[in-house]
Amino acid sequence: MAKLENFARAGYLARAIVYFLLGYLTFATSQAEGTASVLEEIRELPAGTIVLAVTGIGLAGYGFFRIYGALIDIQDDGDGAKGIGKRCGHVASGIAHLILTYLAFKLAFMGGSSGGNGSQEATQTVLSFPGGRIVIALVGAGFLLAGLNQGVKAATAKFRKLLDPDVPHWGIWMGRVGYAARAVVFFVLGWHLLTSAWAENADNIGFQAAVQSLRDTPWLYNAVALGLLVFGLFSLIMARYRTIRDGSLKERIRQGKIWLMS
């Protein structure tokens, strides 16, 4: 089986492409992009179909890395409540990137649209179910916690422990800027979900809508756009300097560190 490291590094390269273009286009056009809509922009580039397919492969690798890494507890988060919460977050991130993989391959080989309003449609569907408001409120709270986590990373640079000791100092600052931008977006997205649950209205839901809502505060909108661009560049740093411990699922089960199977 291919090394886990190969999946991870390919994934970070794909994430770099997505976030760099997301931030650049959001800043340059004053029209917010989302992680799904930016895939359509990639397709319009010279040799865009090839670039999109390669990006999809990388996103698939990253999705696999996040899910498998959570299973083997690659970051030694543990099986306590906090550790399980973190590992569930890694799994959710992996699933989200696999969905982006599907969209990338769909655009590359089947054409059509990425379906940028999918988040609103999904939210409205959930709201129509009994107890749907509670589900959306919980998801919103989850995004607020994710935003808090991103903010902590920006403030403390605790992500540095995942990188080689020889990572350039300016690379750490790029990470802090990028995580700060993501913190803002996640906070706004979480707040939108909570207000949607309260009003039973799914308008303005999704990553793209969260960024677009910042346009009323131009300096913040531009700062977040540039921060997302920087996060794309930081993903290149992660691709180069991330320390990745290849682990065996069987070995981690034997060590009693696979909480999903214990």
Summarize the SSE layout with pairings:
Blueprint: H1 4-29, H2 37-43, H3 48-71, H4 81-110, H5 118-127, H6 132-156, H7 169-199, H8 207-212, H9 218-241, H10 249-254
Helix pairs in contact: 1-2, 1-3, 1-9, 2-3, 3-4, 5-6, 6-7, 7-9
- Kindly provide the radius of gyration, computed on alpha-carbon positions and rounded to a whole number of angstroms: 18 Å
Helical content stands at over 70%
Helix/sheet category: mainly alpha
Strand content is: under 5%
| Main beta-sheet annotation | none
Instruction: Give the overall silhouette.
Output: globular
Mean pLDDT value = 84
Q: Separation of termini?
A: 24 Å
Count of helices? 10
Point out poorly predicted stretches.
258-262
What's the number of extended β-strand segments? 0
Assembly state of the chains shown:
single chain
Order of helices and strands: HHHHHHHHHH
Describe this structure in words.
By secondary structure, the protein is mostly helical. Helices cover 72% and strands 0% of the residues. It is built from ten helices and no strands. Helix 5 (118-127) crosses helix 6 (132-156) and helix 7 (169-199) packs across helix 9 (218-241). Residues 258-262 have low confidence and may be disordered.
Short structural summary:
It is globular and about 50 Å long. The protein has helices at 4-29, 37-43, 48-71, 81-110, 118-127, 132-156, 169-199, 207-212, 218-241, 249-254. It is mainly alpha-helical and 262 residues long.
